[in-house]
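Let's practice the habit of predicting before peeking. Look at the sequence and jot down your guess about where helices and strands might fall. Then scroll down.
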Amino acid sequence: MSSFLLPVQYLRQIAEQLRVMGLAPEHWLTSCGVAPEQLNDPDYQPDIALLIQLVERAMTLSNEPAFGLLLGERLVVGTHGVLGFAALQAASLRQVIELLEQYLPVRTTLVNVQLQPTAQQQFEQLRFVPAHALGAAEQTIIEAITLAVKNIFDAIGLGDSSVHEVSLPFPPPAYARLASNVFGCPVRYQQPCAAFSLNSALLDKPLRMADPDAFREAEQICQRELTKLGDRNSLGDRVQRLLLERQSSFPSLETTARLLYLTPRTLHRRLQSEHTSYKQILRDVRHALAIEHLKSGRLSVEEIAWALGYSDVANFRRAFRQWEGVAPSAYRQQ
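Done guessing? Here is the structure:
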């Protein structure tokens, strides 16, 4: 449906992790139809299907269920380019989160991050919302991304952990104790979404490495990079991100067009030129979110249908069968 961004530097980190484990990265790449020399091409960009294949193959070759955690440990603040540099200069953790909310797409569009209040006033929740259906690679990818962000928080806090608790929407794995040790805080499984629980009082605490001038310069670079991506990214990407940001109540075609400063007719025509449509994008977003909700196990099928904007649960069941070939309840059992 749409393109996504993941710089080749992150594929190199997977290759290096396999090398550390005594495996040949060349075999990993060629088994997925990728020439090893492509990792040296700074402009190389796999599509989402190939990325999922590469991650699944790395898991198979390594025979390591916790591969996502091992990969995440490698993703320190310096691996994220100017975004990581900007985070190191931030005045507060809240400013870092705002930076990620706005500029994470300059590093990857695999997930969106959203800071939201919780029922407990002393805590806020930073959510990681997948922007694509990730299949069997989902847990590995989400573990790697959340740990990479945790590494950023630890770096700017000079070792002081600001994450009170990590939530993951997966069943507890055999390596659950390792996950708690690696994250340095409790990890709860089978939660509604991947998220950090953050102490609100710490979000605005001044950071010792803050450099306002350096932060401003780095943020300007991020803005220029984001503008370049906006020029290259399709309108479909922008519609998809908008729907994900407002998933509690999907905007209509007319509202979406207005939010993008377009007329509904222009939006429809431009999406057609990209071989997609508002309805197709909405279907894809619902598909990804339906899988996320079913895996979390916190909502009933009827509640998921309502959350995704279906007025009739039968319509949701029919749509899900078209996506996955099985009923939602059967998918959850699998």
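How did you do? The chain has a mean pLDDT of 91.
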